[in-house]
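Lab notebook, bench 4. The sequencing result for the construct came back, and we need a structural model before the next group meeting so we can plan mutations. Quick request posted to the team channel:

Model the 3D structure of this chain.
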Amino acid sequence: MTHGPRRIVCLTEEPTETLYALGEQDRIVGISGFTVRPAIARREKPKVSAFTSAKIGEILKLRPDFVIGFSDIQAEIAGELIRHGVEVWISNHRSVDGIIDYVRRLGALVGVADRANAYADELQRGLDDIAAQAAKLAQRPKVYFEEWDEPLISGIQWVAELVRIAGGDDVFPERAAESLAKQRILEDPTEVVRRAPDIIVGSWCGKKFRPEKVAARPGWDAIPAVRDGELHEIKSPIILQPGPASLTDGVAEIAKVIRRWAERRST
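Done. Here's the predicted structure in token form:
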């Protein structure tokens, strides 16, 4: 006997990726237009939302019995759907532990708690393996993660934690602890210069990272990362969504950048 909702609309990518990973993709009747993982989802599921907007009428036509979204940014979409009698779950997790717990909770909500717990344990083991490898590095680099360039926005909590797991130290830990993007805006770009990161990672949500533009910022030529050419892009779909992608491909990319930096310093 099948338990849980049967017609789910996912307003962001992470519930889609998680449900596919759990083998429960047949429950999904609509997805976010920003979904890229898994690739098959884009081909077989109707796209009914962006991140800050949604086609409410199209969603209602799908007759969902459960809609899943993320964060305060989707509060208006959630409110509109709730007023139409739709059950909505807005998760608001911001940490690595929160992502692991999200997988467990989502699995429980759709009636596959055992499978979800096993998958969450697998994700945790992957992180533990990366942390064990990172512990062998001779040096830990200071890392500046840039989520947006106009204005400058530093990395969110789970990104800072993944940098640490991968062997580095985020240079704005106090900003990472803030839940809202506006609280992570760097009013003074020279603060990055003062914190002197060894590595700069850019993931400009939805557009290509331009290392040459970063290097040309006034005074930034004094930053070790700029001086040494350590400016790297990690595509936003694998690091800026609080789901499995960040805990697998995203952290693996960060670890690769840090490992190569450490290797260059040991030769």
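The mean pLDDT is 96.
Will bring this to the meeting.
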